[in-house]
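User: structure tokens for LysR family transcriptional regulator, please.
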Amino acid sequence: MDLRQLRYFLAVAEERHFGRAAERLHMAQPPLSQAIRQLEGELGIALFHRTTRRVDLTEAGRAYLERVRAILTEVDQAADHARRVAAGSVGLLTLGCVGSATYSLLPTLSRHLATELPGIDFSFRGEMLAPDQVEALRGGAIDVALLRPSAADPSLVVHTLRRDRLVVALPAEHPLAAKTRVRAADLAGLDMIMHSADRRSVMHDVVLGVLRDAGIEPRIRHEVGETSTLITLVAGGLGVAVAPEPVTALALDGVVYRPLVRPTASVELAVAHRADRDEPHLARAVEVIRRLL
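Assistant: Done. Predicted tokens:
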């Protein structure tokens, strides 16, 4: 038997008349009658009591009808789900977010994703360094990353979203806090708090490049893995830090932010996913992210 036979049976069972069932199915009555007899032959049971005026279900037919309705409902739901998957309307995605963007972007982005792609279940991992995000993408722990790109990687598709200016995070009582802007040269001789070199942080290399371009060899007092820890240590008066401007959304008592004066004092923010991933729901999520940011 096939699904067509089941739908034929359902129409006859609900109409209790071969003529009306044939009309409902947009087919001639003789082929319908023949299909029902073939179904009964395959099952080895009578599904209907037939008279010249009407058709009634047998006891076995009533039991069969209940199961057929359940089967066809499941089939229809499966087909609808498959169509939604093909359209990128359903799925599961985990998004990893670099530290500074966690505070400034993730609250708004998560709301937009939930509104525009309600059939996709999103989970989020914040405070991830770019190398950790790349490893998580490759291993499948995350599906999409908002990261600070470094060297080109052929295993990833990377779309630059924007460039974020760099700012200096200062203890509120620091003398430089009185300035409206801070030059890289102003950081000479100061205790610096930086993202970890051991964990291959992109920001570590960016900040190191900015300082060395200004002729400064930084005096690094602490290296940390999380941007929130970076700013917390600044609030504690343990040093100053250079970070992307979105970090200013992390407002802590005892910290002020000042723009870093340098013609190219900025760092890219990008969205990335594995090059071998082409699922429709992932593509739609990346499209939303690119449009919003």
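User: Anything notable?

Assistant: The radius of gyration is 32 Å.
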